[in-house]
Amino acid sequence: MGIESSKSANSEVESDELEGHYGYRIMKLLENGSGIRAGLRAYEDFIVAVDDLIVEEEEERIMEYLEEKTGHQVKLVVWNCLDEEEREVLLVVNKPTKDMGYLGVIVRYESLFEAAEYTWHVMSVVPNSPADEVGLMPQLDYIVGTPSVAFRSYDTLPQLVYDAAHLQNSLDLMVWSQATGKVRIISVEPEITEEGTPLLGCELAKGLLHQLPRRNISKTRTRHSKHTETIETPNTPNSVESNDSSTKDTTHSNSMDTTTEEFYDTRSPSSFEARNLEQVPDIDDPNKQTKSGSTTFNKNT
């Protein structure tokens, strides 16, 4: 039985229409699973329906249906957060095993709204730094989350870097590459200065002009962002203040929107330290837009 994909008619969805809508975000594609063979994309794709079943937070109904369809073809309605449109994907349901669920993917139930909003663009990398050692590529790489959860706040990455540095732990991050159009997982070990400042070894930028690019340029629509505030950063030789146009042109305007780009030099010292890290909510806080943990669509999990 073949596996194929096709675009749905009238499938584009405006960003404002996504609030209140949820789906299963694909966090990982399992090797040799149906999902990877069908061309599903980790981080970008959300499963919003299986045949005629709309997905809900409680996955039991979906898993019962997939169990009935084991070995047969189903149609997934998949929404891509970069293309901002739906497509239909046909795949054969796996027979679940200890290591493989029905669809060969690990998913997380999340809101479709602002699904790719909170990304960090790698602008430069210091040679021989932790960022350099794990292969972060300037201009091409975007830090978008961890293996288990996509960022839903700009405060999450600073807290993770801070905690990893002070606990001397490695930090697993999900990185989207413009060169490949795919995500990969890196494991970085942030350093810490004598003053207690965490060092990642790269300059990061956020804001409207540093969100992940659309692949289909002809369909690009103007994106709006409410994240226009300037966050104060320490006055250090290596830090770049986002409201200082003399050091770097960080404010750009067009007829639709005015957005401040914010630059963070995580080389020496990290301007992440300007944030009140103790008040950052836990990334798995159930009151946030991410509403549940991950699942493999396996009846045994």
Automatic annotation (TrEMBL):
Record key words, sorted: Golgi apparatus, Membrane, Repeat
GO annotation, biological process: Golgi organization
Family annotation (PROSITE patterns): PDZ_GRASP
Domain PDZ GRASP-type stretches: 22-112, 118-209
Cited InterPro entries: GRASP55_65 (IPR007583), GRASP_PDZ (IPR024958), PDZ_sf (IPR036034)
Feature: compositional bias, Polar residues: 231-245, 289-301
GO CC annotation, single: Golgi membrane
Disordered: annotated span: 215-301
Main location as per UniProt: Golgi
Biased composition (Basic residues): 215-226
Location of the protein in the cell: Golgi apparatus membrane
KW Glycoprotein (keyword) present: no
Coiled coil segments of this chain: none
Protein name according to UniProt: PDZ GRASP-type domain-containing protein
Species this chain originates from: Galdieria partita
